[in-house]
Amino acid sequence: MLKKLSLVGLLSVAGLLSNSALAEGWVGYLNCFNTGSGISGSDYIFGSSWGLSDLKTTVLTSNTGTIVGDQLRLEPNYNTYNSTDAFWSNGSGGGNKFLELNTFVETASISTASVSFSGTIDSYTLSNDFTAIAFIKVLDPNNGYSLDLFKPVNLNTGAQFSVNADLSGQAGKILQLGYAVYGINANPANAVANGSVVVTAVPEPSSFALIGAAIAGLFAVTSRRRRA
Q: pTM score, two decimals?
C-alpha cells in the first residue's frame, strides 16, 4: 500500500517538497481516541497507516516531481463506521470514536533551517462538527517518534493558508507537511451534509530552494508514528 521512494534532491522552502516522484508520496495515517478525549486528551487508543481512499482523502490533481499544484479533497472518515459494532457506532446512527486523519508527505532527515507550507483553500463546506488544518510536524525517530514540533493553521479562515516553522536544532529528524481532519468517525449516510475541504499547495513569492536536503530515501514508514 505504501511506496518507498529513493530520492536525492532539493527541499523547496515554499513548504513544497520538490523531489522526483514526491507528488506520489502522499500517505495517510489515522489516530483513534475515545470520544470526549479528543486530540488534546489522553484517551488514545491506537494509530496506524491508512490508505488515502479509506482515510477519505482524494488527490484530485498530482504533478510529477513536486507537490506544487497538487489539489486534494479532505473529508471525514467513513470506512470505520459500522452500525453493528459498538466500538465504532453509538447505536443511534452516529460514530463512536474521535479520529485524527493525517495526509502528508515527509523527508527522512531534516537539513534545513526553516520551512513554510502554503496553499489555497479552494472550497470549504465542512460541517462544524469537524475541523481541518494544514500542518508542519517534526518527529524524532531516536526518541520513539516523539512529536517535537507541531505548527498548525486552520483551513476555515479565508482563501489561503500559510504555516512556517523554525527548524533550528531539528537536524536529522523527520519533517512532515500536510493536512489533518479531526472529528467523530462518520456515518456515510451523512456524507453530503458533512461536506469537505479542497486545498491546493502553492509556492510563496519568496520561496527558494535549499541545497543539501539530501532526501536519500523518502519513507512512508508511518507504522512507526505514534501520537506524542
A: 0.81
